[in-house]
Design goal:
The protein is about 50% helix and about 20% strand. Strand 1, helix 1 (about 25-35) and strand 2 form a beta-alpha-beta unit. The chain has helices at about 25-35, 50-60, 75-90, 105-115, 130-160, 170-185, 200-210, 210-225, 255-265, 295-310, and strands at about 20, 40-45, 65-70, 100, 120-125, 190-200, 235, 240-245, 270, 275, 280-290, 315-320. The chain starts with 17 loop residues before the first strand and ends with a strand. The longest helix is centred in the middle third of the chain and has 33 residues, at about 130-160. It folds into two domains: about 10-160, Response regulator (Rossmann fold), CATH 3.40.50; about 170-320, Reverse transcriptase/Diguanylate cyclase domain (Alpha-Beta Plaits, 2-Layer Sandwich).
Length: about 325
């Protein structure tokens, strides 16, 4: 590798990259590693494409750049690049830039590299000046890529979170129930679904205004989140209506955890404009029966149990 001296500021890292070097030549890897580590980048290196694919599969998008040798034993870099792109598409992983390294520099080889999934092409012996310049370009791409990932994650959270209470919304809790149903049918283990409704909630809005009502909803969600286990789920499915999903991981009677939730709500209060606001809740609970129930049937049964709880005087738990 050829080295040239340039002012440090010219190659100053905006943010270190996580770079995977895939090359069967130990000396080539060492030379590239020396250049990149001097720029404070984090280096992972392997000698073949199979090991590279294993690392990429486990990386969960943490690798920012792949430097991939073309001529390697078993499978060449072109085939490995194609497999990387197939993996990204299949697993919905983020695209990761690939720069090929090769002693071949004819147009057909370069074109083949791009067609197989590569983004750039460096001819061996790799010139350190060119390598540094390519890395600076990749840093810019990595910054945009990270911002896109962050933005997508923020949008995903917004799409699945109730804006007021910051708990899962109807869409997300339905996804959770679908996931529990798949697991229940697979393992033949039932799980519990409950729908709860805050009693006479309209009176709070009518008497104290919607700001007070919003504060009560937020407070009740905090109370429930503190009472639920880590594996339990809650989502807001209506104005003052919530759905709770409990995996069957405890041996206590079906009603007991919901009695705790009911009592926690009953014992809580909200201070609003100098007034102490209290509220109760009614619960309708049911068990999902593997192979027999559907998402619609289990929710309909929980809703009927809730209707019974309301008709029986509210602030109570009913099973159906």
């Amino acid at each position: 590798m050829q080295y040239a001296q340039h002012p440090a500021s010219e190659y100053e890292c905006v943010s270190p990259l996580s770079i995977l070097i895939v090359d069967d030549s130990e000396s080539e890897r060492a030379l590239i590693r020396y250049t990149l580590e001097n720029l404070n980048h984090n280096i992972i290196e392997v000698s073949n494409g199979q090991d590279a694919l294993k690392i990429i599969a486990k990386s969960k998008g943490s690798i920012d750049l792949i430097l991939l040798d073309v001529l390697m034993p078993i499978q060449d870099g072109y085939k490995i690049a194609t497999k990387i792109r197939c993996h990204e598409e299949k697993c919905n992983d983020e695209w990761c830039p690939i720069i090929f390294l090769s002693g071949k520099n004819n147009p057909a080889d370069i074109a083949r590299g791009i067609y197989s999934g590569g983004d750039d092409y460096l001819v061996k012996p790799v010139n350190s000046v060119i390598l540094k310049a390519k890395i600076i370009a990749m840093q810019r791409i990595a910054m945009m890529r990270r911002r896109l990932i962050e933005t997508r994650e923020q949008l995903r959270i917004l799409a699945h979170t109730d804006e007021l209470t910051r708990i899962p919304n109807r869409r997300k809790i339905n996804e959770i129930i679908d996931s529990e149903i798949a697991r229940s049918n697979r393992n033949l283990i039932p799980f519990t679904v409950a729908i709860l409704d805050l009693d006479h909630f309209k009176n709070i809005n009518d008497t104290y205004g919607h700001k007070a009502g919003d504060l009560v909803l937020q407070s009740i969600c905090l109370v429930l989140k503190k009472t639920l286990r880590a594996e339990d789920s809650i989502g807001r499915i209506g104005g003052e209506e919530f759905c709770i999903c409990l995996p069957s991981s405890c041996n206590e009677p079906l009603k007991d955890p919901f009695e705790r939730f009911r009592q926690a709500i009953e014992n809580s209060h909200v201070l609003f404009d100098g007034k102490r606001l209290s509220i109760t809740a009614s619960f309708g609970i049911t068990l999902f029966q593997p192979k027999n129930d559907t998402p619609a049937s289990v929710l309909e049964r929980a809703d009927k149990a809730l209707y019974i709880a309301k008709n029986q005087g509210r602030n109570r738990v009913e099973i159906l």
